[in-house]
Amino acid sequence: MIFITGGAGFIGSNFILDYLSAHNEHVLNIDKLTYAGNPFNLSSLDNDARYHFVQADIADRETIAALFAQHRPRAILHFAAESHVDRSIHSPGEFIHTNVNGSFTLLEVARHYWCDLPPVEKESFRFLHVSTDEVYGTLGPSDPPFSETTPYAPNSPYSASKAASDHLVRAYHHTYGLPTLTTNCSNNYGPYHFPEKLIPLVILNALDGKPLPIYGDGRQIRDWLFVSDHCTAIREVLARGTPGETYNIGGWNEKTNLEVVHTLCDILDRLKPKTAGSYRDQIAFVQDRPGHDRRYAIDARKLERELGWKPAETFESGIAKTVRWYLDNPQWVLNVRSGGYLKWLELQYGRKENT
Ligand code: NAD
Ligand code: DAU
User: Fold this and answer.
1) What residue owns the CA closest to ligand 1's atom 17?
2) For residue 124, what pLDDT is reported?
3) Which parts of the chain register pLDDT below 50?
4) CB-side exposure of 353: number of CA atoms within 13 Å?
5) Which of 138, 185, 197 to mutate to test the pocket of ligand 2 (most atoms within 8 A of CB)?
6) What domains are defined for the chain?
7) Which ligand has its closest atom nearest to the C-alpha of 35?
8) What DSSP string describes 111-177?
9) pTM of the model as a whole
10) Ligand closest to CA 99
């Protein structure tokens, strides 16, 4: 069996679906089901005997230790996190709880479990920590992309909490020999993406006739990776990565936010034309995110060189599939836009004035 933390979230649920389509192994999903956790993402596995779910907080040491003792996993893949930068600006406390204390708890429990394993299982056990490119800070327009040796310089409470967890993972390998793997990935997009993040927010606001909020001048750059490519990369790292190493994962798709939003509007104009005008007419420039990082870009050559991984999707193919998925899944959209989601929109966008 493998353990997945945060498997009801965007990337975790894509990963579980991807993993079970390729491997015949039991998976235990440990998820607290915060606002971002959505069991509907995995409803296609309702009758799959290989899938198991426990609702638990990763910072609850007793419960996590009991799960290790009961199921004796061969690996743990740690996706669970508070993941939204804007929420970390409003309320950083939860980010410290989950991303720092929760990751620490998992490492401690995994270390004790691993220490007592027989030699063969001890050798093959893996703790795979899923992290982000945001730990490296921000790039200037002509800086080289982030590599695995770029110094850490996190700028938001979110990225600082992820950087703290990366350092703990590194220390547990260096000090105790725990066979860890760390992946630092760029911006994901695709099915099941919670609509607080730019791409799903813009698709759904566009269809609702609402403003498409662009922070600041919209010229910030992100490096977009289709989520199924991220899943493939993680599978490769789990199978063949070297313990103690980190691997950067990126899509080689640097785009400004304006380019992304224009692309989404143009696809929707084709697939779901408005009675008059273009979805671009709904674009609204709003107050910038405090401390907003200007540019992220990932150098993913280590992963390609050592493990032969390359993304399969281009931005054009991935974004077309993504828009199609949101149009084809109105029930999923309805379910995630609960009262809690509406309160978030009010807090984040209610007071922002157009510039
Ligand atoms: P998400 O917010 O969609 O999902 C997070 C999941 O973790 C949810 O199911 C939530 O219920 C669960 N969770 C939160 N706190 C928990 C706790 N204390 N105990 C147990 N479960 C808890 O996040 P995501 O976008 O799927 O990101 C997954 C991981 O990938 C995160 O570690 C994130 O930092 C990293 N990452 C995300 C991106 C991206 O673009 N989304 C890019 C790079 C790295
Ligand atoms: O780089 C990896 C990171 O990507 C992950 O570690 C995070 O978990 C994930 O949330 C994502 O962070 P970003 O802050 O880059 O994603 P977000 O979708 O929130 O924003 C993408 C860009 O769009 C960013 O420059 C901010 C901007 N933006 C975002 C929103 C929500 C807007 O202009 N308007 C918006 O309404």
Assistant:
1) 57
2) 98
3) 353-355
4) 1
5) 197
6) 2-189+226-250+294-312 (3.40.50.720)
7) 1
8) HHHHHTS-HHHHHH-EEEEEEEGGGG----TTSPPB-TTSPP---SHHHHHHHHHHHHHHHHHHHH-
9) 0.98
10) 1
Q: How far apart are CA 13 and CA 9, in angstroms?
A: 6
- Nearest by Cα to 343 from 192, 156, 194, 196: 196
Q: How far is the CA of 221 from the centre of ligand 2 (A)?
A: 10
Pick the residue whose CA is nearest to atom 10 on ligand 1. 37
Question: Residue 43 belongs to what H/E stretch?
Answer: none
Q: How far apart are CA 129 and CA 104, in angstroms?
A: 11
Cite the DSSP H helix spans in the chain. Answer: 10-22, 61-71, 85-90, 93-95, 103-115, 119-124, 157-176, 198-208, 227-240, 257-271, 301-307, 315-328, 330-336, 339-349
State in Å, rounded, how far the first CA of the chain is from the last one.
53
315: CA distance to ligand 1 center in Å? 22
- Give catalytic residues, as residue numbers: 133-134, 158
What's the pLDDT at 351? Answer: 60
Q: Which amino acid is at 185?
A: C
Interval 204-261: pLDDT, tens:
999 999 999 999 999 999 999 999 999 999 999 999 999 999 999 999 999 999 999 9
Q: How many CB atoms lie within 10 A of CB 177?
A: 14
Residues linked to residue 29 through DSSP beta bridges, in sequence order: 4, 53
- Any ligand 2 atom below 6 A from CB of 159: no
